[in-house]
Amino acid sequence: MPAIAAPAGGLGRQLDALAGRHVVFLNWRDLEHPQAGGAELYCQSVAERFAAAGARVSLLTSRPAGTRRSQIVRGITINRSGGTFGVYPATLARLLRDRHSIDAVVDCQNGIPFFSPLVLPATPVVQILHHVHQRQFPLYFPAPVARIGQLLETPGSRWVYRRCPVAVVSPSTRDEAWEILRLRGPRFIVPGGVDTPRDDGPSRPADRPTIVCVGRLVPHKRLHLLLDALPALRAAHPGLVVDLVGDGPDRERLGRHAAGLGLGDDVVRWHGYVEDRQRDQLLSTAWLTVNPSHGEGWGLSVLEANAHGVPAVAFRVPGLRDAVRHGHTGWLADDADGLGPTIDMALSALADPVTAARWRDRARAWAACFSWDATAELLARVVTTEIDRLSSRAPGRHPRESRRADLLVTRAEFPLPSTQALPALRRTDLIYRNVPDRDEPYQSGTGRAGDGSDRAVAVLYGAGPADARAALDRAGVTGPIEVRTATGEDLLIAAVRCALPDAVQADSPVAGASSSF
Fold this sequence. Notes:
CATH architecture of the largest domain: 3-Layer(aba) Sandwich
Structural class: alpha/beta
Shape: globular
Largest sheet: 8 strands, mixed
Number of strands: 18
CATH class of the largest domain: Alpha Beta
Helix content: 25-40%
Low-confidence stretches: 1-10, 396-403, 438-452, 502-517
Radius of gyration: 23 Å
Number of domains: 3
Strand order of the largest sheet: 3-4-2-1-5-6-7-8
Strand content: 15-25%
Number of helices: 15
């Protein structure tokens, strides 16, 4: 099959460019696994959209007891083999066997990488990195095993993946990929999506203060910190209840901890795993969600709660500091001592119906910015770019050398009439129309809101200010170009916006949002 190229006159939908290609996804678990979570939802939500666009999609994953070895789920051929650790050699053996039919690999790193480049040295490989697990290994394994896991994650992944492109789910993960894992491939922001809640009619918060937390009960979520804060919070907010939705290995310990604090089932309600409809019903009546984790890749549970109009309290830690917009969709606490006072402040604010309605509207609008369609399109751009790069390399040249570092990232803003198409840049650069809206709840005050100007924003990876200006000049941009070094927030908002169809960008909930959103 010929190399993929951007359609003339614009970028086009890169998902469609994958039609007929065999793309193999690697993930530790799939959604049938009893311990499936956000990483599995991300993997299969994207994979099924690749399949719907015409790609031949396979998922190689582990096989827990009671699951089939192979099945087709929503266009994805799922092949299961091996257990918690046996999945790694089993997956490499399968890749080696099928290497001649594979066009690209999406390698999801969940702590321990699959090391797919070892058996596919000339095949396009794109890593998916949710977050760094260096601090989590000691929470789950004895010291010697934990150390092995840490070494496999780094320096192991750095040596094997070399300069493969990395799709990261948040600005925090992008920073950690460089600073902790020291991955030297280009790092592209590809945030996860949020499923739109069922429209079961209008909902309203419960009559009494209610906190709902959804997620697996595992040590690194640190739900004991929420339990510690509850006695004082109950005194300040009579009738306060906490609904914990989910299960996991930390359930028994948390139950003992709650009992030791005198928190009965009338205060902490343990729901375990529930059907989606029941989970959504609980969320729709919550005042607040709380995530005391010491770090996440993105904070998908926060965004899912936001979709129901539920603001969040979390720590100012990787991932969560990206997902929670402090002062707009929730509140961020700096340390464990500040968690209780932050929840107290949030519940006090939400006790006023008018104030609560404003928070709920902002939370819904923020969650609406993220879709799995946009996630799939952003990842498709990275995958097709890597396919093109390797197919065009000179004979005999090592397939993973000569990449430009992406430490420099520049945000450029320039005038662009509504009648003029977006300029054509590199497939992985982020470009969108910035149409200010006076009523936009996320407008940070650029001085242009409501002035009627039509402008565009481009965020260019691996480009300094001079390079960005030169690229835009070559693309035919006229008029003054304002440039500055891009922040993580710039990357996140641009990723959200650029995957939207050009015709509807002005109607997006984030229209006009700027870098300090």
